[in-house]
């Protein structure tokens, strides 16, 4: 795609046209994360779904750019980019911080009267609150690093390398500053179905917190609970892919999720 915000994943052997015409799944990464966080998922949902992963400023191939230290700033920029770059049907998948951003982008599109996502997949994040969550209010770099280690994830070992840590810390700092300052401003609920996803051993987000997302849509909300922690997606990718394809009606089966 031509926009600087989006990265597409297609099989090297099939070329860029392999997913032409497929429904697009726009994926929003977690705090400190980049577009590559969704590479595994993209492999599991193709060819019926084309993953378009968001690349926030300040990481990976945008590491020389200043991060945007505000959820609203990120959502404003991405709503403009979605409107400019996406045509045809699409859905949003946001994990952790990405769930909040995906929801805020969908709200902005709805408020403008623009075509929006067919479904929101909201993963590893409690429903919006009028006060910041305690696990987002981190005052020092040491607090941020302790939280990152607590959350776990397959890439956690990189933080033992001082050079890598120095490179990623500005992005983590900016992302947690954005989360720590985010508060929900009450607005009309979306008329878009939600699928909320959570690991049963998430150390900071209880299942009851994600169930609260049902208050933010007038459409159906389904819940999926997976074995694993905050980054269950890294090890339960095939299961998540089945949920996504089923919810989007691409497997020929009825959605088996439990409504909440």
UniProtKB/TrEMBL annotation:
Pfam families: Thioesterase
Top-level lineage group: Bacteria
Magnesium as UniProt keyword: no
Domain Thioesterase TesA-like residue range list: 26-214
Gene3D superfamilies: alpha/beta hydrolase (3.40.50.1820)
Keywords of this entry: Hydrolase
Gene Ontology terms: biological process: lipid biosynthetic process
InterPro entries referenced in this protein's UniProt entry, alphabetically: AB_hydrolase_fold, TEII, TesA-like, Thioesterase
Similarity comment text for this entry: Belongs to the thioesterase family.
Stated name of the protein: Surfactin synthase thioesterase subunit
Organism of origin: Streptomyces griseoloalbus
